[in-house]
Amino acid sequence: MPEGCEVFSKPSRETLATAQSPTEAENFFGEMEALMSEFYNVDGQGGRMVSPFPFNTTNSMESNPEYGNIDDLSIKSRVEQLTQLTDEQRHALMEHAASFFEIPPDLVAFTEVLRTFALCNFSSSMIEEATMKRKIAKGTTALALAILKDFKGDRIFSSPVKSISQGKGTHLVTVTLESGKQLQSRLAISTIPWNVFPSIQFFPCFPSAKPLANGISPPSHDMLNPLGSSAEVATSNLSVLAAMVPFARAS
């Protein structure tokens, strides 16, 4: 358990959270560390064989064909493979692993959990330090609001992008929203999540090798990978147009 941390337990949404004693907390983390070790051990080497390059998923896939065998696993489906565990242990393991992402365990790719573990040098103590000890003082909402406060351009939310086209003239880029509204600019910087990428039409189309080279067809693209790199993070299809707004005109 990270030094200086307090641990609270909350068996269900209906019950109140209660503080655990240091002994209870140590026991919990000891049991959970053992369960997580089994969870990661998909290759008999604690995940090290299938994810040797956590900073480069493509290289991990190329270096070990076994990566493809875990490609479709979610947290839930991986836990279900651990038939030696009790129902209580499986439930606790699923909820704990999914707590890093704050979404249901059937929506998180197992490969993403494993990659997060690999990024922490396959160390359970380091992953707890990285995810639990240090937090943004006023939460992620405060961080988002601070970023929005610094940005002086226009902002558009809840506006899924339908297509992005490149043409000629002063305004080279046209972004068409699902509402039919168009935004035009001389340039656009895309931070569209790769798992959302296939839902957007690009004109002209990318060469067939381009999506593969950039990981646009990532593992388990129907699952969320919230802690991935900028090329792998999965979110909903929002129009992220901040970089083009200073030049944009609507039509």
TrEMBL record:
GO molecular function, one term: oxidoreductase activity
First and last residue of the signal peptide: none
Ranges for domain Amine oxidase: 78-208
UniProt region (Disordered), positions on chain: 1-21
Taxonomy, superkingdom: Eukaryota
Organism this protein belongs to: Fusarium euwallaceae
Matches recorded under SUPFAM superfamilies: FAD/NAD(P)-binding domain
Name listed for the protein in its UniProt record: Amine oxidase domain-containing protein
Cited Pfam families: Amino_oxidase
Gene3D superfamilies in the record: 3.90.660.10
